[in-house]
Amino acid sequence: MKIAVLDDYQDIARELADWDSLGAEVDVLTEHIADHDALVDRLAGCEVVVAMRERTPLPAEVLRRLPDLRLVVSLGGPRNPSIDLKATAELGIVVSHTGYLPHPTAEHTWALILAAMRGLPGEDRSLRTGGWQTTVGRSVQGATLGVVGLGRLGSRVARIGQAFGMRTIAWSTNLTEEKAAEHDVEAVSKERLLAESDVVTIHQVLSSRTRGLIGAAELAAMKPTAWLVNTSRGPIVDEAALIEALRQRRIGGAALDVYDTEPLPADHPLRDLPNTVLTPHVGYVVRDLYEVFYRDAVEDIAAYQAGEPIRVMSL
């Protein structure tokens, strides 16, 4: 059996699971391969592909050119829109998924919020070049945290905000006052959330309904001092509209971990905007979650080899 492990940027997969127990040839790819032809060439002969969440899409065009592929293990929960599940079903390819932990992304959201509100990236750069106290930060206590999507992640982020003494409000299409009250959060309209929040943080799944959810009109409705935080998916925010709002300083800034194109191109305009805090989609990149990912992947592959049931991802 030949196994390909995709997008292991930190070259850590071999360290965190017992791949030798599978008695297979394991090819670990530490670089992202965006070109479909190059990807097909690299995956030729593979019976199993381990996909790191949505880093490398597996559309029908690619899947149909991999005749030996029988199993795709998606690292993360039971959803990965970058894998064409209709095509895998037609081709007889099994798609399984691993476990997931929600707390790393919630923690990283708060790392971004605090870094943004206290101007930490700029102070760090200044201090390293001889500077001293170049900014005046803002406290989160008493500020308003607007949570877009009060699910598993959003409710965690809200709870931490409450511990800091923030007023917490939330909106999503189906959020009810009763559901928000369960988390001591006030359910408000989208318009109120944008107008009243000092920090707007996004915690929604990317779908046709949420793509472009935060566009030019929504950015214009925010306070000129407010920060937009996105650790969910890049396309939930209209990137062009955001860049323009940041250039014109219509909002306080943006703290981002996710982007329309990943890895973020070296010449991308976001890299040059000073009113940003940028991280390279590392919200979930912590050792304890990676241990879950790779341990479960090896277990799924072993179960597949033995003809035993595995966690199958469904349409």
TrEMBL record:
InterPro entries: D-2-hydroxyacid_DH, D-isomer_DH_CS, D-isomer_DH_CS1, D-isomer_DH_NAD-bd, NAD(P)-bd_dom_sf. PROSITE patterns: D_2_HYDROXYACID_DH_1, D_2_HYDROXYACID_DH_3. The keyword Isomerase does not apply. It comes from the Bacteria. Gene3D superfamilies: NAD(P)-binding Rossmann-like Domain. This is Lactate dehydrogenase-like 2-hydroxyacid dehydrogenase. Keywords: NAD, Oxidoreductase. It holds the Pfam family 2-Hacid_dh_C. CDD domains: PGDH_like_1 (cd12169). It comes from Prauserella rugosa. Residues 111-283 form the D-isomer specific 2-hydroxyacid dehydrogenase NAD-binding domain. The keyword NAD applies. One of its GO terms (molecular function) is NAD binding. Belongs to the D-isomer specific 2-hydroxyacid dehydrogenase family. SUPFAM superfamilies: Formate/glycerate dehydrogenase catalytic domain-like (SSF52283), NAD(P)-binding Rossmann-fold domains (SSF51735).
